[in-house]
Amino acid sequence: MTAVGIDAIEIRTGRLKLDLPGTFAPAQGEDPEKYTKGLGLNASSFPDSYEDIVTMGANAAHRLMERKGLTPEDVGRIDVATESAFDNSKPVSTYVAGCLEQVFDGDFHHANKGERKFACVAATQAVDDAYNWIRAGRSRGKAAIVIATDTALYARDDPGEATQGAGAVAMLITEDPNLVEISAEQGYGSADETDFLKPQQQFPSVDGKRSMQVYLARMREAVEDFESVAGATHPDDYAYIPYHTPFPGMVRKAGLLGYRHMIRDTSVEDDLADEIGRQPRREAFDDDEAYEEAIREYVDALAETEHYQEWYAATVEPTLEISREVGNWYTGSVHIARASALRDAYEKDVDLEGQRMLVGSYGSGAQAEVHAETVREGWREEVEAMNVDEQLDRRYELSFEEYEEIHDAHNHDVDSDVEELTTPDSEFVFDGWGRMGERQYRYVE
Ligand code: CAA
Questions:
Q1: What does the buried/exposed string (b/e) look like for 267-288 if buried means 16 or more CB atoms within 10 Å of the residue's CB?
Q2: Which of 14, 349, 392, 434: disulfide with 166, CB 3.0–4.6 Å?
Q3: From the CB of 196, is ligand 1 less than 6 Å away?
Q4: Which CATH number fits the domain that encloses residue 407?
Q5: For residue 369, what are the domain limits?
Q6: Band of the pLDDT at 415, cuts 50, 70, 90?
Q7: What is the domain count for the chain?
Q8: Is the CB of 162 under 6 A from ligand 1?
Q9: Are 353 and 205 in contact (CB under 8 A)?
Q10: Binning pLDDT at 50, 70 and 90, where does residue 357 land?
Q11: Which atom, in ligand 1's list, is nearest to the CA of 362?
Protein backbone atom coordinates (compact mmCIF):
# COMPACT_ATOMS: atom_id res chain seq x y z
CA MET A 1 0.00 0.00 0.00
CA THR A 2 1.44 3.41 -0.96
CA ALA A 3 2.16 5.66 2.00
CA VAL A 4 -0.20 8.59 2.58
CA GLY A 5 0.54 11.38 5.00
CA ILE A 6 1.84 14.90 5.51
CA ASP A 7 4.21 16.07 2.81
CA ALA A 8 4.88 19.57 4.15
CA ILE A 9 3.84 21.96 6.91
CA GLU A 10 3.76 25.75 7.10
CA ILE A 11 3.13 27.64 10.31
CA ARG A 12 1.84 31.20 10.47
CA THR A 13 1.79 33.03 13.76
CA GLY A 14 -0.21 36.14 14.56
CA ARG A 15 2.18 39.10 14.33
CA LEU A 16 1.80 40.34 17.91
CA LYS A 17 3.18 38.90 21.13
CA LEU A 18 2.02 39.24 24.73
CA ASP A 19 4.67 38.45 27.33
CA LEU A 20 2.68 36.48 29.93
CA PRO A 21 4.96 36.52 33.00
CA GLY A 22 6.41 39.95 32.19
CA THR A 23 3.36 41.98 31.05
CA PHE A 24 0.13 40.07 31.61
CA ALA A 25 0.72 38.53 35.06
CA PRO A 26 1.66 41.82 36.83
CA ALA A 27 -1.30 43.63 35.26
CA GLN A 28 -3.64 40.87 36.47
CA GLY A 29 -2.04 40.88 39.94
CA GLU A 30 -0.77 37.31 39.47
CA ASP A 31 2.49 35.54 40.19
CA PRO A 32 4.50 35.22 36.93
CA GLU A 33 5.39 31.65 37.93
CA LYS A 34 1.76 30.62 37.45
CA TYR A 35 2.60 31.06 33.75
CA THR A 36 6.18 29.84 33.49
CA LYS A 37 5.95 26.97 35.98
CA GLY A 38 2.22 26.20 36.31
CA LEU A 39 0.80 26.57 32.79
CA GLY A 40 4.21 26.31 31.10
CA LEU A 41 3.71 29.41 28.94
CA ASN A 42 6.04 32.33 28.19
CA ALA A 43 4.00 34.23 25.64
CA SER A 44 0.85 34.33 23.52
CA SER A 45 0.61 35.20 19.84
CA PHE A 46 -2.10 37.69 18.82
CA PRO A 47 -3.37 38.84 15.45
CA ASP A 48 -2.77 42.46 14.46
CA SER A 49 -5.89 44.41 13.52
CA TYR A 50 -5.53 43.42 9.83
CA GLU A 51 -5.14 39.71 10.61
CA ASP A 52 -7.80 37.06 11.17
CA ILE A 53 -8.36 33.34 10.58
CA VAL A 54 -8.50 33.86 6.81
CA THR A 55 -5.32 35.93 6.48
CA MET A 56 -3.31 33.59 8.72
CA GLY A 57 -4.62 30.49 6.92
CA ALA A 58 -4.13 31.97 3.45
CA ASN A 59 -0.63 33.24 4.28
CA ALA A 60 0.37 29.77 5.52
CA ALA A 61 -1.14 28.09 2.43
CA HIS A 62 0.49 30.64 0.11
CA ARG A 63 3.96 29.90 1.42
CA LEU A 64 3.22 26.18 1.34
CA MET A 65 2.22 26.26 -2.32
CA GLU A 66 5.09 28.53 -3.36
CA ARG A 67 7.67 26.47 -1.54
CA LYS A 68 6.38 23.20 -3.01
CA GLY A 69 6.08 24.73 -6.51
CA LEU A 70 2.33 24.01 -6.69
CA THR A 71 -0.30 25.66 -8.86
CA PRO A 72 -4.06 25.58 -8.14
CA GLU A 73 -4.33 22.76 -10.70
CA ASP A 74 -2.24 20.52 -8.39
CA VAL A 75 -4.66 20.92 -5.46
CA GLY A 76 -7.91 18.92 -5.42
CA ARG A 77 -9.16 19.77 -1.98
CA ILE A 78 -8.97 22.62 0.56
CA ASP A 79 -10.37 22.03 4.03
CA VAL A 80 -10.25 24.48 6.88
CA ALA A 81 -10.66 23.48 10.51
CA THR A 82 -11.52 26.28 12.91
CA GLU A 83 -13.38 27.14 16.09
CA SER A 84 -13.33 30.83 15.21
CA ALA A 85 -15.49 30.92 12.05
CA PHE A 86 -17.50 34.08 11.42
CA ASP A 87 -20.06 32.64 9.00
CA ASN A 88 -22.52 29.79 9.56
CA SER A 89 -22.90 29.08 5.84
CA LYS A 90 -19.96 30.15 3.65
CA PRO A 91 -16.87 28.16 4.62
CA VAL A 92 -13.57 29.83 5.45
CA SER A 93 -11.93 27.66 2.77
CA THR A 94 -13.74 29.67 0.06
CA TYR A 95 -12.26 32.89 1.42
CA VAL A 96 -8.82 31.27 1.53
CA ALA A 97 -9.15 30.02 -2.04
CA GLY A 98 -10.25 33.52 -3.10
CA CYS A 99 -7.11 34.95 -1.52
CA LEU A 100 -4.84 32.40 -3.18
CA GLU A 101 -6.45 33.10 -6.58
CA GLN A 102 -5.21 36.71 -6.21
CA VAL A 103 -1.60 35.53 -6.32
CA PHE A 104 -1.56 32.32 -8.39
CA ASP A 105 -2.43 31.87 -12.06
CA GLY A 106 -5.50 29.70 -12.51
CA ASP A 107 -8.27 28.94 -10.01
CA PHE A 108 -9.58 26.36 -7.56
CA HIS A 109 -13.00 25.82 -9.20
CA HIS A 110 -12.25 22.09 -9.48
CA ALA A 111 -11.28 21.76 -5.80
CA ASN A 112 -13.63 20.40 -3.13
CA LYS A 113 -13.74 22.87 -0.23
CA GLY A 114 -15.12 22.41 3.23
CA GLU A 115 -14.99 23.36 6.85
CA ARG A 116 -14.56 20.93 9.71
CA LYS A 117 -15.87 21.57 13.20
CA PHE A 118 -15.20 19.58 16.33
CA ALA A 119 -13.33 21.98 18.58
CA CYS A 120 -9.55 21.42 18.51
CA VAL A 121 -9.68 17.91 17.02
CA ALA A 122 -11.19 19.21 13.75
CA ALA A 123 -7.93 19.64 11.82
CA THR A 124 -6.94 16.07 12.60
CA GLN A 125 -10.35 15.02 11.26
CA ALA A 126 -9.72 17.08 8.12
CA VAL A 127 -6.34 15.37 7.67
CA ASP A 128 -8.24 12.09 8.01
CA ASP A 129 -10.73 13.14 5.34
CA ALA A 130 -7.87 13.96 2.98
CA TYR A 131 -6.15 10.66 3.80
CA ASN A 132 -9.36 8.74 3.05
CA TRP A 133 -9.95 10.69 -0.17
CA ILE A 134 -6.50 9.75 -1.43
CA ARG A 135 -6.79 6.13 -0.22
CA ALA A 136 -10.20 5.78 -1.92
CA GLY A 137 -8.55 6.61 -5.26
CA ARG A 138 -10.60 9.79 -5.73
CA SER A 139 -7.80 12.36 -5.74
CA ARG A 140 -6.83 12.11 -9.46
CA GLY A 141 -3.21 12.50 -8.39
CA LYS A 142 -3.87 15.85 -6.74
CA ALA A 143 -2.88 16.95 -3.25
CA ALA A 144 -5.09 18.17 -0.41
CA ILE A 145 -4.45 21.29 1.66
CA VAL A 146 -5.67 21.18 5.25
CA ILE A 147 -5.57 24.42 7.22
CA ALA A 148 -6.01 24.74 10.98
CA THR A 149 -6.61 28.38 11.85
CA ASP A 150 -7.87 30.05 15.00
CA THR A 151 -7.90 33.21 17.01
CA ALA A 152 -8.18 31.47 20.38
CA LEU A 153 -9.36 34.42 22.45
CA TYR A 154 -11.35 34.27 25.68
CA ALA A 155 -13.51 36.94 27.31
CA ARG A 156 -11.48 39.39 29.39
CA ASP A 157 -10.88 38.07 32.92
CA ASP A 158 -12.01 34.54 32.04
CA PRO A 159 -9.44 32.08 33.47
CA GLY A 160 -8.86 30.92 29.87
CA GLU A 161 -7.42 34.38 29.05
CA ALA A 162 -4.13 33.03 30.39
CA THR A 163 -3.92 30.47 27.58
CA GLN A 164 -4.88 32.55 24.50
CA GLY A 165 -3.14 32.42 21.13
CA ALA A 166 -3.59 32.94 17.40
CA GLY A 167 -2.11 31.26 14.39
CA ALA A 168 -2.53 28.85 11.50
CA VAL A 169 -0.96 25.62 10.29
CA ALA A 170 -1.25 24.58 6.64
CA MET A 171 -0.52 20.95 5.78
CA LEU A 172 -0.10 19.32 2.40
CA ILE A 173 -1.52 15.79 2.33
CA THR A 174 -0.23 13.56 -0.45
CA GLU A 175 0.72 10.07 -1.49
CA ASP A 176 4.36 9.21 -0.89
CA PRO A 177 4.84 12.18 1.51
CA ASN A 178 8.15 13.80 2.44
CA LEU A 179 7.45 14.31 6.14
CA VAL A 180 5.36 11.60 7.85
CA GLU A 181 3.24 8.63 6.86
CA ILE A 182 -0.04 8.35 8.82
CA SER A 183 -1.06 4.95 10.19
CA ALA A 184 -4.28 3.33 9.04
CA GLU A 185 -4.83 2.34 12.67
CA GLN A 186 -6.44 4.96 14.88
CA GLY A 187 -8.31 5.09 18.16
CA TYR A 188 -11.16 7.26 19.42
CA GLY A 189 -12.51 8.37 22.77
CA SER A 190 -15.70 10.32 22.17
CA ALA A 191 -18.57 11.38 24.45
CA ASP A 192 -21.24 14.07 24.77
CA GLU A 193 -19.51 16.46 27.20
CA THR A 194 -20.15 20.05 28.27
CA ASP A 195 -16.64 21.26 29.09
CA PHE A 196 -15.99 24.02 26.55
CA LEU A 197 -18.46 25.36 24.01
CA LYS A 198 -19.50 28.45 22.03
CA PRO A 199 -23.29 28.37 21.64
CA GLN A 200 -23.72 31.14 19.02
CA GLN A 201 -21.15 33.31 20.78
CA GLN A 202 -17.64 34.41 19.95
CA PHE A 203 -15.86 33.70 23.22
CA PRO A 204 -16.12 30.28 24.82
CA SER A 205 -18.06 29.19 27.89
CA VAL A 206 -15.55 27.05 29.75
CA ASP A 207 -15.57 24.85 32.78
CA GLY A 208 -11.78 24.89 32.98
CA LYS A 209 -11.13 22.24 35.63
CA ARG A 210 -13.74 19.91 34.16
CA SER A 211 -12.25 20.42 30.67
CA MET A 212 -8.93 19.09 31.98
CA GLN A 213 -10.54 15.96 33.39
CA VAL A 214 -12.47 15.36 30.18
CA TYR A 215 -9.27 15.78 28.13
CA LEU A 216 -7.55 13.06 30.19
CA ALA A 217 -10.54 10.69 30.19
CA ARG A 218 -11.13 10.87 26.43
CA MET A 219 -7.40 10.63 25.68
CA ARG A 220 -7.17 7.47 27.75
CA GLU A 221 -10.12 5.92 25.89
CA ALA A 222 -8.54 6.82 22.57
CA VAL A 223 -5.23 5.16 23.52
CA GLU A 224 -7.04 2.00 24.56
CA ASP A 225 -9.08 2.02 21.37
CA PHE A 226 -5.87 2.51 19.34
CA GLU A 227 -4.26 -0.42 21.16
CA SER A 228 -7.24 -2.62 20.32
CA VAL A 229 -6.25 -2.38 16.63
CA ALA A 230 -2.51 -1.59 16.73
CA GLY A 231 -1.41 -3.65 19.76
CA ALA A 232 -0.07 -2.47 23.12
CA THR A 233 1.86 0.80 23.18
CA HIS A 234 5.25 0.97 24.87
CA PRO A 235 7.19 4.13 25.77
CA ASP A 236 10.25 2.94 23.79
CA ASP A 237 8.19 2.62 20.60
CA TYR A 238 7.92 6.34 19.96
CA ALA A 239 10.55 8.97 19.33
CA TYR A 240 8.05 11.71 20.22
CA ILE A 241 4.48 11.93 21.47
CA PRO A 242 2.87 15.19 20.33
CA TYR A 243 -0.39 15.91 22.17
CA HIS A 244 -3.01 18.57 21.72
CA THR A 245 -1.47 21.39 23.78
CA PRO A 246 -3.94 23.96 25.17
CA PHE A 247 -1.00 24.84 27.45
CA PRO A 248 2.09 22.75 28.26
CA GLY A 249 0.95 22.09 31.87
CA MET A 250 -1.98 20.07 30.48
CA VAL A 251 0.39 17.86 28.51
CA ARG A 252 2.54 17.37 31.60
CA LYS A 253 -0.49 15.66 33.18
CA ALA A 254 -1.38 13.69 30.04
CA GLY A 255 2.23 12.51 29.58
CA LEU A 256 2.43 11.15 33.11
CA LEU A 257 -0.88 9.26 32.86
CA GLY A 258 0.05 7.98 29.41
CA TYR A 259 3.38 6.69 30.71
CA ARG A 260 1.71 4.91 33.63
CA HIS A 261 -0.67 3.25 31.20
CA MET A 262 2.07 2.18 28.78
CA ILE A 263 4.41 0.66 31.37
CA ARG A 264 1.77 -1.46 33.12
CA ASP A 265 2.70 -5.17 32.90
CA THR A 266 6.02 -4.37 31.23
CA SER A 267 9.62 -4.76 32.36
CA VAL A 268 9.66 -1.00 33.07
CA GLU A 269 7.05 -1.50 35.78
CA ASP A 270 9.15 -4.35 37.17
CA ASP A 271 12.32 -2.23 37.09
CA LEU A 272 10.58 0.52 39.05
CA ALA A 273 8.95 -1.81 41.59
CA ASP A 274 11.79 -1.63 44.14
CA GLU A 275 11.71 2.15 44.08
CA ILE A 276 7.95 2.94 44.03
CA GLY A 277 6.12 -0.41 44.19
CA ARG A 278 3.90 -1.90 41.51
CA GLN A 279 0.87 -0.14 40.08
CA PRO A 280 -2.28 -0.56 42.17
CA ARG A 281 -4.76 -3.07 40.65
CA ARG A 282 -8.49 -2.51 41.16
CA GLU A 283 -9.09 -6.06 42.46
CA ALA A 284 -6.83 -5.35 45.45
CA PHE A 285 -9.15 -2.60 46.77
CA ASP A 286 -12.58 -2.67 48.41
CA ASP A 287 -13.86 0.49 46.77
CA ASP A 288 -13.12 2.92 43.93
CA GLU A 289 -12.13 5.72 46.29
CA ALA A 290 -9.32 3.72 47.93
CA TYR A 291 -8.14 2.50 44.52
CA GLU A 292 -8.08 6.03 43.08
CA GLU A 293 -6.17 7.35 46.08
CA ALA A 294 -3.57 4.58 45.63
CA ILE A 295 -3.29 5.44 41.92
CA ARG A 296 -2.72 9.11 42.76
CA GLU A 297 0.06 8.15 45.19
CA TYR A 298 1.67 5.86 42.61
CA VAL A 299 1.52 8.53 39.91
CA ASP A 300 3.04 11.16 42.21
CA ALA A 301 5.90 8.78 42.99
CA LEU A 302 6.30 7.84 39.31
CA ALA A 303 6.68 11.53 38.38
CA GLU A 304 9.75 11.73 40.63
CA THR A 305 11.58 8.74 39.10
CA GLU A 306 14.58 9.25 36.85
CA HIS A 307 13.11 6.70 34.45
CA TYR A 308 10.02 8.77 33.86
CA GLN A 309 11.79 12.14 33.84
CA GLU A 310 14.29 11.02 31.21
CA TRP A 311 11.53 9.63 29.01
CA TYR A 312 9.44 12.80 29.37
CA ALA A 313 12.41 15.08 28.64
CA ALA A 314 13.20 13.20 25.43
CA THR A 315 9.73 12.28 24.15
CA VAL A 316 7.24 14.93 25.27
CA GLU A 317 9.06 18.08 26.43
CA PRO A 318 10.43 18.91 22.95
CA THR A 319 6.88 18.92 21.52
CA LEU A 320 6.00 21.88 23.76
CA GLU A 321 8.65 24.37 22.73
CA ILE A 322 6.67 26.31 20.11
CA SER A 323 3.50 26.18 22.19
CA ARG A 324 5.28 27.85 25.12
CA GLU A 325 5.89 30.89 22.92
CA VAL A 326 2.48 31.13 21.22
CA GLY A 327 -0.25 29.80 23.56
CA ASN A 328 -3.25 27.79 22.43
CA TRP A 329 -3.98 27.67 18.70
CA TYR A 330 -6.97 25.35 19.18
CA THR A 331 -7.17 23.33 15.92
CA GLY A 332 -3.50 23.98 15.16
CA SER A 333 -2.17 23.02 18.60
CA VAL A 334 -1.39 19.36 18.05
CA HIS A 335 0.07 20.22 14.66
CA ILE A 336 2.54 22.72 16.11
CA ALA A 337 3.42 20.07 18.72
CA ARG A 338 4.40 17.71 15.88
CA ALA A 339 6.35 20.51 14.16
CA SER A 340 8.10 21.31 17.43
CA ALA A 341 9.16 17.66 17.80
CA LEU A 342 10.54 17.51 14.27
CA ARG A 343 12.39 20.78 14.78
CA ASP A 344 13.95 19.34 17.94
CA ALA A 345 15.19 16.28 16.05
CA TYR A 346 16.55 18.50 13.30
CA GLU A 347 18.42 20.72 15.76
CA LYS A 348 19.88 17.71 17.59
CA ASP A 349 20.77 16.03 14.30
CA VAL A 350 18.77 12.91 15.21
CA ASP A 351 18.45 10.21 12.57
CA LEU A 352 14.66 10.19 12.63
CA GLU A 353 13.84 8.47 9.36
CA GLY A 354 11.68 5.38 9.97
CA GLN A 355 11.05 6.27 13.63
CA ARG A 356 7.52 6.58 14.89
CA MET A 357 5.50 9.20 16.75
CA LEU A 358 2.24 8.69 18.59
CA VAL A 359 -0.05 11.66 17.99
CA GLY A 360 -2.85 12.48 20.45
CA SER A 361 -5.44 15.02 19.30
CA TYR A 362 -8.30 16.33 21.43
CA GLY A 363 -11.35 18.52 20.95
CA SER A 364 -13.69 19.65 23.69
CA GLY A 365 -17.27 18.53 23.55
CA ALA A 366 -15.47 15.97 23.43
CA GLN A 367 -13.32 13.66 21.34
CA ALA A 368 -9.76 12.41 21.42
CA GLU A 369 -8.05 10.66 18.50
CA VAL A 370 -4.79 8.74 18.56
CA HIS A 371 -2.77 7.47 15.60
CA ALA A 372 0.85 6.72 14.79
CA GLU A 373 3.09 8.46 12.25
CA THR A 374 6.29 7.18 10.67
CA VAL A 375 8.91 9.76 9.76
CA ARG A 376 9.86 9.77 6.07
CA GLU A 377 13.13 10.19 4.24
CA GLY A 378 12.54 13.83 3.21
CA TRP A 379 11.74 15.14 6.70
CA ARG A 380 14.96 17.17 7.14
CA GLU A 381 14.45 19.20 4.00
CA GLU A 382 10.88 20.00 5.08
CA VAL A 383 11.82 21.06 8.59
CA GLU A 384 14.71 23.18 7.30
CA ALA A 385 12.25 25.09 5.09
CA MET A 386 9.96 26.11 7.97
CA ASN A 387 10.49 29.72 9.06
CA VAL A 388 8.64 29.63 12.38
CA ASP A 389 11.59 30.90 14.46
CA GLU A 390 12.01 33.92 12.20
CA GLN A 391 8.30 34.69 12.53
CA LEU A 392 8.34 34.34 16.31
CA ASP A 393 11.34 36.65 16.59
CA ARG A 394 9.80 39.41 14.49
CA ARG A 395 6.54 39.64 16.49
CA TYR A 396 5.69 43.06 17.89
CA GLU A 397 5.61 42.99 21.68
CA LEU A 398 2.43 44.41 23.18
CA SER A 399 2.18 46.63 26.24
CA PHE A 400 -0.80 45.78 28.46
CA GLU A 401 -2.74 48.81 27.15
CA GLU A 402 -2.12 47.73 23.55
CA TYR A 403 -3.22 44.20 24.45
CA GLU A 404 -6.52 45.57 25.78
CA GLU A 405 -7.08 47.51 22.54
CA ILE A 406 -6.20 44.55 20.32
CA HIS A 407 -8.52 42.27 22.29
CA ASP A 408 -11.32 44.79 21.67
CA ALA A 409 -10.38 45.01 17.99
CA HIS A 410 -11.06 41.28 17.66
CA ASN A 411 -14.19 41.33 19.83
CA HIS A 412 -17.22 41.17 17.53
CA ASP A 413 -19.35 42.98 20.13
CA VAL A 414 -17.09 46.00 20.44
CA ASP A 415 -16.97 48.74 17.84
CA SER A 416 -13.33 49.77 17.85
CA ASP A 417 -11.00 51.35 15.37
CA VAL A 418 -7.48 50.27 16.30
CA GLU A 419 -4.44 51.32 14.29
CA GLU A 420 -2.29 48.45 13.09
CA LEU A 421 0.86 47.93 15.14
CA THR A 422 2.91 46.25 12.41
CA THR A 423 3.27 46.91 8.71
CA PRO A 424 1.98 44.20 6.39
CA ASP A 425 4.58 42.91 3.98
CA SER A 426 3.95 40.39 1.17
CA GLU A 427 0.83 39.01 2.82
CA PHE A 428 -2.96 38.87 2.76
CA VAL A 429 -4.75 41.44 4.92
CA PHE A 430 -8.34 42.06 5.97
CA ASP A 431 -9.61 44.89 3.80
CA GLY A 432 -13.07 45.77 5.14
CA TRP A 433 -16.62 44.62 4.56
CA GLY A 434 -18.50 43.93 1.32
CA ARG A 435 -22.11 44.74 0.45
CA MET A 436 -23.50 41.44 1.86
CA GLY A 437 -21.53 41.62 5.09
CA GLU A 438 -18.74 39.46 3.75
CA ARG A 439 -15.18 40.02 4.83
CA GLN A 440 -12.83 41.16 2.07
CA TYR A 441 -9.13 40.52 1.63
CA ARG A 442 -6.26 42.02 -0.32
CA TYR A 443 -2.68 40.93 -0.98
CA VAL A 444 -0.19 43.60 0.07
CA GLU A 445 3.09 43.46 -1.88
N1 CAA B 1 3.93 28.87 40.84
C2 CAA B 1 3.89 27.64 40.26
N3 CAA B 1 2.71 27.08 39.81
C4 CAA B 1 1.57 27.79 39.94
C5 CAA B 1 1.55 29.07 40.55
C6 CAA B 1 2.80 29.62 41.00
N7 CAA B 1 2.88 30.83 41.56
N8 CAA B 1 0.28 29.53 40.53
C9 CAA B 1 -0.48 28.56 39.98
N10 CAA B 1 0.30 27.51 39.61
C11 CAA B 1 -0.09 26.28 38.95
C12 CAA B 1 -1.34 25.64 39.57
O13 CAA B 1 -1.01 24.81 40.67
C14 CAA B 1 -1.89 24.88 38.39
O15 CAA B 1 -1.13 23.69 38.18
P16 CAA B 1 -1.77 22.26 38.54
O17 CAA B 1 -2.99 22.13 37.68
O18 CAA B 1 -0.69 21.30 38.15
O19 CAA B 1 -2.09 22.29 39.99
C20 CAA B 1 -1.56 25.78 37.20
O21 CAA B 1 -0.50 26.63 37.62
C22 CAA B 1 -2.73 26.69 36.76
O23 CAA B 1 -3.13 27.42 37.88
P24 CAA B 1 -4.68 27.51 38.28
O25 CAA B 1 -5.30 26.15 38.20
O26 CAA B 1 -4.81 28.27 39.53
O27 CAA B 1 -5.20 28.39 37.06
P28 CAA B 1 -6.64 28.87 36.73
O29 CAA B 1 -7.62 28.46 37.77
O30 CAA B 1 -6.52 30.31 36.46
O31 CAA B 1 -7.03 28.13 35.38
C32 CAA B 1 -7.22 26.74 33.49
C33 CAA B 1 -6.29 27.23 34.63
C34 CAA B 1 -8.42 26.02 34.09
C35 CAA B 1 -6.45 25.81 32.60
C36 CAA B 1 -7.70 27.99 32.69
O37 CAA B 1 -6.63 28.66 32.13
C38 CAA B 1 -8.70 27.66 31.62
O39 CAA B 1 -9.91 27.62 31.85
N40 CAA B 1 -8.20 27.45 30.35
C41 CAA B 1 -9.06 27.17 29.21
C42 CAA B 1 -9.53 25.75 29.17
C43 CAA B 1 -8.43 24.78 28.81
O44 CAA B 1 -7.44 25.12 28.20
N45 CAA B 1 -8.63 23.53 29.18
C46 CAA B 1 -7.69 22.47 28.84
C47 CAA B 1 -8.39 21.17 28.52
S48 CAA B 1 -9.66 21.44 27.30
C49 CAA B 1 -8.82 21.54 25.81
O50 CAA B 1 -7.71 21.12 25.70
C51 CAA B 1 -9.54 22.16 24.66
C52 CAA B 1 -8.97 23.52 24.43
O53 CAA B 1 -8.01 23.68 23.70
C54 CAA B 1 -9.58 24.65 25.13
A1: ebbeebeeebeebbeeeeeeee
A2: 14
A3: yes
A4: 3.40.47.10
A5: 4-444
A6: confident
A7: 1
A8: yes
A9: no
A10: very high
A11: 50
Of 216, 240, 262, nearest in space to 321 by CA: 240
In the chain, the percentage of residues whose pLDDT exceeds 90 is 99
The answer to whether the CB of 241 is under 6 A from ligand 1 is no
Active site (annotated) includes residue 83: yes
pLDDT, tens only, 129-153: 999 999 999 999 999 999 999 999 9
Ligand 1 pocket check for 45: Cβ under 6 Å: no
Catalytic pick from 83, 181, 382, 427?
83
Instruction: Give the mean pLDDT of the chain.
Output: 97
Q: Is 99 part of the annotated catalytic residue set?
A: no
Cβ neighbourhood burial of 182 (10 Å; 0-12, 13-18, 19+): buried
- In which band, very low, low, confident or very high, does the pLDDT at 1 lie, cut at 50, 70 and 90? confident
Give the HSE-up count for residue 304: Cα atoms under 13 Å, Cβ half-sphere. Answer: 7
- Ligand 1 atom nearest to 250, measured from its CA: 46
Q: Which value, to the nearest 10 degrees, does the dihedral of the CA atoms of residues 332, 336, 339, 341 take? A: -140
Q: What does the pLDDT read at residue 417?
A: 84
